[in-house]
Amino acid sequence: MSTPPEVLTDYYRRRAAEEPDAPAYFSLHAGRWLATSWGAFMHGAEALARRLAALQLPACSRLGVMVPTGLDWETVQVGALLGGHAIVGLDAHDQPARLADIIQVSELAALVVGDAASFARIPDDACAKLAFVLCLNDDPAPAGCRPRWLARREFDALDGVSAGPGPAPGTVATIIFTSGSTGAPKGIAYSHAQVCLAVAGILDAFPDIDANDRLVCWLPLSNLFQRMINFCAAGRGAQTYFVADPRSIMTQLPSIRPQVFIAVPRFFEKLNEGIEQQLTRQSPGARRLVRWAIGVGARVAQAQRDGHVPDIFTRLQFALADRLVLRRLRALLGGEIRFMVSGSAPFPRWLIEKFHALGLLVLEAYGISENVVPIAVNRTTDFEFGTVGRVLAGNEVTLADDGEVLVRGLGVFGGYLGQPGVDSPLGPDGVLHTGDLGEWTPTGRLRLTGRKSEVFKTSTGRKIAPTAVEARLKQIPGIDHVVVFGAARKAIVALVTPSLDLAPTLRDDAAFTQYAERIAAQVAAAVADDADYLRPAGLLVHRHAFTIDSGELTGNLKLRRKVIEARHGPALDALFDRIDSGGRFVAPVAPDTLMLNC
User: Fold this and answer.
1) pLDDT tens, 326-346?
2) The domain containing residue 518 runs over which residues?
3) How many domains does the chain have?
């Protein structure tokens, strides 16, 4: 076996040298998937590296990339890495102020954008120091653009020069930014050696991924999560299909037929909602058939997890259930998936078990921005639902006295960019304090129990981990997000937003009130058997969903709790006051917001 690379570009060089004609990437053109081979891809990346050198981009510069998910993003990334530059991903849908912060903190030398409209989202002052902006189409320079503007045609006409010696293991490969769920984004620089260590660890955990596998690149490439998967694909020679618009992912999966699929929990929640909505449109007989089939699948899946062989009667039932129902549900995802991986946020156990009943194995993984190596993962032959699996090679994990997960390893960051000691979770002994609470299971796997900063106490002294309550309530049909509050109050309350498919039907006030009353009743029923202190005493029901554009969600679709609490603070205060006064109520409390008790 060859030595694992210590610079990322070696993965691509090796692949192009060993299998130049093998398909590497597929892009959709006029309804057809067109392949790009490893050799052709490297030819394009090397040409781009030479053109960047012709623009006299200084060695080890930081290049921002704000381009839609696709082959262009990947080519720019590898071309820049070949020249020894660092990649900084920017999300064109991010808030302008955050984009400006990223450009300033990372000290970008230049920027690559997909079009002029994306560039126009960035405040002018943030771009003043850029040497140039490369636009990957022929849009003219926006009015007032101060940096040199290069349309793609002009860039492609440049005479390239030598890109230089390329990166060393210690060269910075990428700068990522924390999601900013609790404050301003902070930059983290990772070297080629650190990212390669992460790739090697992931590939070691999933040895069954090979060159015949089809993977999907559909999550934002501004986030390192998806890029790591692409690096792993290059490591094994697997084929990557680009889906530029994540909203079209479900329509593309049947033609891609992936064997491995990566997503965030929000995708699986929406997929389950879609299945349930389709089910409500079926006849009573069809609904009973589907429920029966899923029930049979659940018994077989449970037996598998317990290491048992189902009895012959159950096996016969399962064969029939799979032929009539379950395989048709799996066909929604292409029908060939061996396993899926979920990361970036906790996955509800009830939902992961439901997918397993359908014959879809979802493996939960755990990592944080401050450690480029994933901390723990479930494997295809070694998994336990409700946990994030076993610790990945390269990490040393311990638990503090209060249960906080502590990590030491070569993948741990060295401090935030430009402010290495400010608000750093890195201790002087090199131990990373993750802020996550966990426990070891009897089988030696890691189970996360909450986020340390999110746990609060009520005025009665009860300690509340809000994510557990939220996960329970999100099972209620028609709910998109739930956020639980109650620090220093005698009871907890929940802020609820409707699912996206319902939002258009709630524009009428009467319909919105009816929805809110139904949700309040279902919340009360869902927590009826819970301890008193875990039952929300009241609800805020907001008419509109949380979005990235509105600032309530991070790019990874995590809740920005402080933003949400500040935005709904007066309504929350009013709700708590009304609860203290007693009685039943349904009342408007803020624009598009009702308060109710449960």
Assistant:
1) 999 999 999 999 999 998 888
2) 456-597
3) 2
